[in-house]
Design brief:
Elements lengths: L1 E3 L4 H10 L4 E5 L3 E2 L4 H12 L3 E7 L5 H9 L5 E3 L6 E4 L3 E4 L3 E2 H6 L4 E3 L3 H15 L13 H8 L7 E4 L3 E5 L4 E8 L5 E9 L1 H5 L1 H7 L6 E6 L7 E7 L16 H24 L1
Parallel strand pairs: 2-4, 3-8, 4-5
Antiparallel strand pairs: 1-9, 2-6, 6-7, 7-9, 10-11, 11-12, 12-13, 13-15, 14-15
Helix pairs in contact: 6-9
């Protein structure tokens, strides 16, 4: 492998794109190309001459800007959860580097890169791609909406619905109730979606009624927690299925529908339970 000096990494990637006749594969967790005309013009030329292009980026809502910038160019990237590798290759040569495809990295970051010099080195990078990257080619991005967008749509019956999000959690507010949502580690170290709502004492005392009448909470477990030391009684929903997303503010595209369905199911059922409790 030939070491590429920091100031020449982007130039080597540009050359790799320019000299491709058959295909180009770009693997970069983050891509910010707005205003980076040296790069975007090369991608346009690549597409104009009919060369195949595959781009893989990191899955997650925080990468929505990268995905949308590519889609504006007519390029749909493939999504890989927790992607950290950066690889760039065509049918002739390959580059592995610390550099994401960010215009800021091109200008400001201290990066390192390696370019294949021998066929064996090139083949090893392609082998890595085939084993670890290409299987994600089925994960085509449909990340045009956020988790919050999905919830506003699925909970549209609550006309005064508000959602407030931060880094670790967000709150879903209906007209009369508040539900707190976050992703936490369970006792086995697995990511678990947790949704919490506050109950009145009357509602808490009717928890057996909830268990007997509200049994359509697929993939959700329910715990009723009695408040101690002047704390409120609460009901907690937790996912029984595996969750790969580690933060509610950055859910994976592949889990967006699952997580929004779980939250929607919990909110709808608890709201119905509260309504029925008031009538009886």
């Amino acid at each position: 492998m030939k070491i590429i000096s920091p100031s020449k990494i982007s130039g080597e990637i540009f050359t790799l794109i320019d000299e491709a006749d058959q295909f180009v594969v770009l693997v970069s967790p983050y891509i910010k190309i707005l205003g980076w005309h040296k790069f975007t013009n090369r991608l346009k030329n690549l597409l104009d001459r009919g060369t195949k292009l595959e781009i893989y980026v990191r899955d997650g809502q925080k990468n929505l800007d990268s995905i949308n910038q590519l889609k504006e160019m007519g390029i749909t990237p493939y999504l890989i959860p927790h992607l950290h590798s950066k690889l760039y290759f065509n049918e002739k040569s390959a580059i592995s580097t610390s550099m994401n495809l960010l215009s800021s990295s091109d200008k400001n970051s201290l990066e390192i890169g390696h370019k294949s010099e021998y066929q064996k080195e090139y083949d090893e990078i392609v082998k890595y791609y085939k084993r670890y990257i290409r299987p994600h080619k089925k994960n085509i991005s449909d990340f045009e909406t956020t988790l919050e967008d999905e919830l506003y749509s699925k909970l549209s019956a609550f006309h005064k619905l508000k959602i407030y999000s931060n880094f670790y959690s967000f709150d879903v507010l209906t007209e009369n109730n508040k539900f707190s949502v976050q992703i936490m580690k369970d006792q086995n170290g697995r990511n678990t979606l947790q949704i919490q709502g506050i109950l009145s004492r009357k509602e808490f005392e009717k928890r057996d009624f909830f268990h007997s009448e509200y049994n359509n909470l697929n993939n959700l477990g329910i715990d009723f927690i009695e408040g101690q030391d002047n704390n409120y009684d609460t009901v907690i929903g937790f996912s029984k299925c595996n969750i790969d997303s580690s933060r509610i503010s950055n859910v994976l595209n592949l889990e967006k529908n699952l997580i929004s369905d779980l939250i929607t199911s919990f909110v709808q059922n608890i709201e119905a339970f509260k309504h029925d409790s008031r009538k009886s």
